[in-house]
Design brief:
The mean pLDDT is 91. Strands 6, 7, 8, 9, 10, 11 and 12 form a 7-stranded parallel beta sheet that branches. A 5-stranded mixed beta sheet has the order 1-3-4-5-2. It is elongated, with a radius of gyration of 20 Å. It is α/β, with parallel strands linked by helices. The protein is 33% helix and 31% strand. Helix 2 (89-102) packs parallel to helix 7. A hairpin with a 4-residue loop joins strand 3 and strand 4. It starts with 5 loop residues before the first strand and ends with a helix. The protein has helices spanning 22-31, 89-102, 123-140, 154-160, 175-180, 200-208, 223-235, and strands at 6-8, 16-21, 39-43, 48-58, 61-72, 80-85, 106-111, 147-148, 152-153, 164-174, 188-192, 212-215.
Amino acid sequence: MEALPRVCVPGGVGPGTLELGDEQARHLAGSRRLRRGDAFLVFAGDGVEYRARVEGASRDRVTATVGEVTRREAPTARTVAVWCANVRPNRMEWAIEKCVEAGVDVFRPITTERAARGQELSESRQERWQRIAIEAAEQCGRLYLPAVEPVATLDAALEGWQGSLVVASPGGAPWAEVARGLPERAALALAIGPEGGFSEEEVARAVEAGAAVASLGPNTLRTETAAVVAVALARA
């Protein structure tokens, strides 16, 4: 049996009448060809999912009735953030999508000494990144929405961070060893360097700020691959 389509309505949703337009309507009525009487799932990113029924559908508008709760989940004990060094736009988008599927709560692009240049944040790019995160959450069944934060320097990210921090580096301790020392309920940030890795000075500043340094395994990983692996390890 094919899974029901899922759509996110940020800002809140509950039993009653629901009107969807723009991309959501095009997805349900266009791509998924839903018509009157068809069912779909809707959530707002607050841990609750509802079953809804289409009452009317056109290319740019869907009217539905939201009914019973289908799932409800409490937030996870550990919030996981990934700080990912800037890479080319298509690779950054892939990293956001896959990190969301792996369970990241916060995705923050960072600039580092060796990271790709010329990728300053624009409003349109920020909106696109957040839309990719929402679409990934819809696809993979998540009930909480991840946040995509503005690009920051590594030093700015370090200055504002209050939780646990792990820097991924080939010279670090084995992940399993580092993981045993991480508090289960503290927020956790995973810093992923660019091709060529963080500089020695950057690692030293992170360690001075309280970071542990961990290896993600014996193989050399692309930045975006390392980000997904780190999130998966943290969630495991």
